[in-house]
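Exercise: predict the fold of this chain.
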Amino acid sequence: MLHLIALPRNQIRNIVKQYNSEKNIGEENAVLNKITKELECLNLHRTPYNIITILKVSEKYFDDSPVNRTKMIEMILFVLFDLDEIPRYKTMPDLKDCEYVLGRYCEIMLKSEIYTFKKDEFILELKNSARKNILTWT
């Protein structure tokens, strides 16, 4: 459960420092500021998993410019699927499959003027969209 706890800035700095010492993304304060901005702009919790995911994205695409949410989400999805650690599908969806399914769900919500959702509704709609696109869930 500790991996779900939101971290204060000094602990985020420790993760950035350790990661940056191995991968050398950029100057430590610049990387730290970028990571905290990304978390805030994408409305992600400051969990170790989210921090490491954004660090992994920054490893290849570090840029100190303002956050482009669409591009960052695309890069996060790429990193998640590039690591090949998602065992929930019989056939592995690719980045475009995920972008399509998430985009479709957002479109449905916006057209219906619904701005909140429940986990069960989200999963049901994802399964329906996945079936239409020949993705099989286990």
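Check your answer against the key: Residues 95-111 form the longest helix (17 residues).
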